[in-house]
Amino acid sequence: MKIASVIACAALALGASAVASADEFTKEDLARWQEQFDGVVKEGRALWTDAKLGKNGVVCAQCHPNAANTHPETYPKFQKQLGKVANFWEMVNWCIRNPLEGDELAADDPKMTALLTYATWERRGVKLEPGKH
Amino acid sequence: MDIKYDRRSFIKTSTVSVGAAALPLTMVELAFAKPSDNFTFAYISDSHIQQIKGTQFVRNWDRGLIRAVAETNLLTPKPDFIMYGGDLAQMGSKPELDHGAEILSKLNGKVYHVMGEHDYYLDLGEYWSKLFGKQYYSFNHKGVHFVVLNSILTYDEWTFNRWPSAEQRMAEMAGLDNPNGSPFMVGDQQREWLKKDLAKVKKDTPIVVFSHSPLQKIYKGWNFWTEDAEQVQALLAPFDKVTVFYGHVHQIQYNQIGNIAFTSAMATAWPWPYPQSYAQAQQLLPKLTVQMNRADPFFERDATGWQFIDVNSGRASATFNLYNNTTRTVAFDPQAGHPKDQTYQDEDKRISPQMHY
């Protein structure tokens, strides 16, 4: 908040036309957001092939090349093995605990965000079908 | 493990669920004029034994191979031999190959070996050859000419000049979806050898070829691919009955190209998605293939398994012994001129878990 208001004041003081309304963004904004997103995809791919994510050296990509067969577009869905409607991240944690024999991540752990971002990016263009089996 | 339970469940699933398609082997053999010429062999592949450190190995992959070995030993009638289809190790190391060889040593019977890329790219097959012998060879068995090829070679520049260390070379090839990998090939030297080897064989002799990678082009992105597949196929074209078995793909695939029937092997370690389920790439799965059920990740061994092959009159029938799923049999149909799944081939016989996306 503090930083934002400082920037806003600075912009006002300069009389810059770049003071954006809430619903406007510039090419520079888009470029920065894309760069941030791409960085997280890249980080996710690195984790997808990282023998240190779990504890036995097994990596996500061993069973899921290009994150195939992860079906992010089908979540949330009823997961019969868990007996409830589950989110994609819960299944990622299931894999970390079982085939990777590792410790699960918090839902908002930046590593989890990166893994989910990578898998979803590999599935881009596929229509959302929550609940699908 | 409880061997008695496994044996019972295997017999139960193979007779009940597949019905007439999976008659006990002895009965299948009776259907032919010269039963003495018919035989079976077991086919185990892709175990990916993976070292954690020291004497610790990934338990999941160990269990897959241990189970395949135990069940193969229970086959009745006893298979004439066992073919191991490659990728015994994950990172090609001596401890992994030794550990895998030790598990395989429990098999009753002669074992032949095929080289996989995970066995090869650390030391270019040196230790594997010490354990298992030649990387390509042929032999005759009951009137069938068997050929084993090392199909996972690649361009010399990639193998010899690109990587700073043998470990990195192995790691780069080990990642199925790694764009730094390189397409597999049989290569000039082996194709020359194959030409000479086949020159001595009569055209009506059934030929069965084993390779690790498919000797057909399915999806280059995951190396479901052999760069010189057409050239190898051309050498096999003059023969009446040719069957190619391959591993690497960790899933059921079958196809017919000209005179050549192709059948893949399941992995004992883990299943792979079918290539078309990767949304960002176009590839063609052989249209004959009825896909195996989508795996339930909560069953550690689901969509993994091993197979036994029944060779009748020089044609092969492959029975896929899936651990947590219905057994499937894919047999060459002489009238159709290609392999067919004995239960699910017709569109209206297929079931929803076979739809991959």
UniProtKB/TrEMBL annotation, chain A:
What are the boundaries of the signal sequence? 1-22
Q: Is Signal among this UniProt entry's keywords? A: yes
Which InterPro entries does this entry report, sorted A to Z?
Cyt_c-like_dom (IPR009056), Cyt_c-like_dom_sf (IPR036909)
Keyword list (alphabetical) reads: Heme, Iron, Metal-binding, Signal
* Cytochrome c domain: residues covered: 43-127
A GO MF label: electron transfer activity
User: Sorted alphabetically, which Pfam families does this protein's record hold?
Assistant: SoxA-TsdA_cyt-c (PF21342)
Report the Gene3D superfamilies cross-referenced here. Answer: Cytochrome c-like domain
**Coiled coil spans:** none
Q: Does the keyword Transmembrane helix apply?
A: no
Name recorded for this polypeptide: Cytochrome c domain-containing protein
